[in-house]
């Protein structure tokens, strides 16, 4: 999960929501991925999908039997579905996602016998650390938006003062 957190940091560095994933086989990391839908203009470029694509390429197999995927955030419906198609052996996630989590928070696709015969799921590994990274990211984005607003307001105020001076024949000299 520490490796997945390092991937999440790479997403942050590019301005993407910091979620990271790694695929492990026989105790070795065979693929990594981080969330990158904005840069790639790709709504499917979640960390898990990126990592699974890389793992499948590395193994030369469209399925990932015997593989474990570690991801910093509970996967969404799309990623959970892809894990089942890949016949991934095990999912381990960090923070829970109360808005889109499909491994128990909103729905639990992994508990569905009709859908899933292959992938075991476990959550809460380094949960706090994984969640704190996301919280810090969104807090910094809010702070940046606030700073931009203040800068805009200051600019507008200055423009109004200049306009008033000009209207009054006062050029400020
Ligand atoms: Zn996803």
TrEMBL record:
<feature type="active site" description="Proton donor">
    <location>
        <position position="48"/>
    </location>
</feature>
<comment type="function">
    <text>Catalyzes the deamination of adenosine to inosine at the wobble position 34 of tRNA(Arg2).</text>
</comment>
<keyword id="KW-0479">Metal-binding</keyword>
<feature type="binding site">
    <location>
        <position position="46"/>
    </location>
    <ligand>
        <name>Zn(2+)</name>
    </ligand>
</feature>
<dbReference type="InterPro" id="IPR016192">
    <property type="entry name" value="APOBEC/CMP_deaminase_Zn-bd"/>
</dbReference>
<dbReference type="InterPro" id="IPR016193">
    <property type="entry name" value="Cytidine_deaminase-like"/>
</dbReference>
<dbReference type="InterPro" id="IPR028883">
    <property type="entry name" value="tRNA_aden_deaminase"/>
</dbReference>
<feature type="binding site">
    <location>
        <position position="79"/>
    </location>
    <ligand>
        <name>Zn(2+)</name>
    </ligand>
</feature>
<feature type="domain" description="CMP/dCMP-type deaminase">
    <location>
        <begin position="1"/>
        <end position="106"/>
    </location>
</feature>
<comment type="subunit">
    <text>Homodimer.</text>
</comment>
<feature type="binding site">
    <location>
        <position position="76"/>
    </location>
    <ligand>
        <name>Zn(2+)</name>
    </ligand>
</feature>
<dbReference type="Pfam" id="PF00383">
    <property type="entry name" value="dCMP_cyt_deam_1"/>
</dbReference>
<protein>
    <recommendedName>
        <fullName>tRNA-specific adenosine deaminase</fullName>
        <ecNumber>3.5.4.33</ecNumber>
    </recommendedName>
</protein>
<keyword id="KW-0819">tRNA processing</keyword>
<dbReference type="InterPro" id="IPR002125">
    <property type="entry name" value="CMP_dCMP_dom"/>
</dbReference>
<dbReference type="GO" id="GO:0052717">
    <property type="term" value="F:tRNA-specific adenosine-34 deaminase activity"/>
</dbReference>
<keyword id="KW-0862">Zinc</keyword>
<comment type="similarity">
    <text>Belongs to the cytidine and deoxycytidylate deaminase family. ADAT2 subfamily.</text>
</comment>
<keyword id="KW-0378">Hydrolase</keyword>
């Amino acid at each position: 999960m520490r490796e997945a957190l390092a991937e999440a940091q790479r997403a942050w560095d590019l301005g993407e929501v910091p979620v990271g994933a790694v695929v492990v086989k026989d105790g070795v990391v065979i693929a990594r991925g981080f969330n990158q839908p904005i840069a790639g203009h790709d709504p499917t470029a979640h960390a898990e999908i990126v990592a699974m694509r890389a793992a499948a390429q590395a193994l030369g197999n469209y399925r990932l039997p015997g593989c474990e995927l570690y991801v910093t955030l509970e996967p969404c419906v799309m990623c959970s579905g892809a894990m089942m198609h890949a016949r991934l052996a095990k999912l381990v996630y960090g923070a829970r996602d109360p808005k889109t989590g499909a491994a128990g928070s909103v729905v639990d696709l992994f508990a569905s016998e009709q859908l899933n015969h292959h992938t075991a799921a476990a959550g809460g590994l380094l949960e706090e650390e994984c969640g704190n990274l996301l919280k810090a990211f969104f807090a910094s984005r809010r702070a940046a938006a606030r700073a931009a607003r203040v800068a805009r307001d200051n600019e507008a105020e200055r423009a109004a003062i200049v306009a008033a001076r000009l209207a009054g024949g006062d050029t400020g000299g």
